[in-house]
Amino acid sequence: QVDYDVCSNYGNWLYSAGVGNDPRDSRKFNMIKQGLDYDGNGDYVRLWVPELQGIKGADIHTPWALSSAALSQAGVTLGETYPRPVVTAPEWSRHMQQRPVSRSPHPRGRRGPAQHKDRGIDFYFSRKKDA
């Protein structure tokens, strides 16, 4: 199975739904920020959402924000080949124009024993992990 850890997944889904235990008020899960932090080039999205394969780089996380020309070039028609967003949270706007190039691969800039810039999706699915 892909990406399955019972404790992590259930805890994260509950947290994302806003029913988890969180000491902060008005906490919201920011999908755009998460996409940029953990899939900066969009490889994971491109793997599982073939309708968006023509969109290059981090733009894949916000296809609705692209120009008509860019969507046309990528072969995407919002509302036909890919759905329009149901909601767009105001909190997303500050991340929509960012590019992950200078961002730390670890959330909030915390650093572990080693940094892996642009690991790509193969890093997460390979058996051998470098530290």
Automatic annotation (TrEMBL):
Regions of compositional bias (Basic and acidic residues) in chain numbering: 115-131
Obligatory cofactor(s): FAD
Biological process (GO), any one: photoreactive repair
Pfam families recorded: FAD_binding_7
InterPro entries per record: Crypto/Photolyase_FAD-like_sf (IPR036134), Cryptochr/Photolyase_FAD-bd (IPR005101), Cryptochrome/DNA_photolyase_1 (IPR002081)
Chain spans, region Disordered: 88-131
The keyword Hydrolase appears for this protein: no
Residue ranges of domain Cryptochrome/DNA photolyase FAD-binding in the record: 2-98
Biased composition (Basic residues): 105-114
GO molecular function: damaged DNA binding; deoxyribodipyrimidine photo-lyase activity; FAD binding
Keywords on record: FAD, Flavoprotein
Family of the protein in this entry: Belongs to the DNA photolyase class-1 family.
Protein name (Swiss-Prot/TrEMBL): CRYD protein
Organism: Promerops cafer (Cape sugarbird)
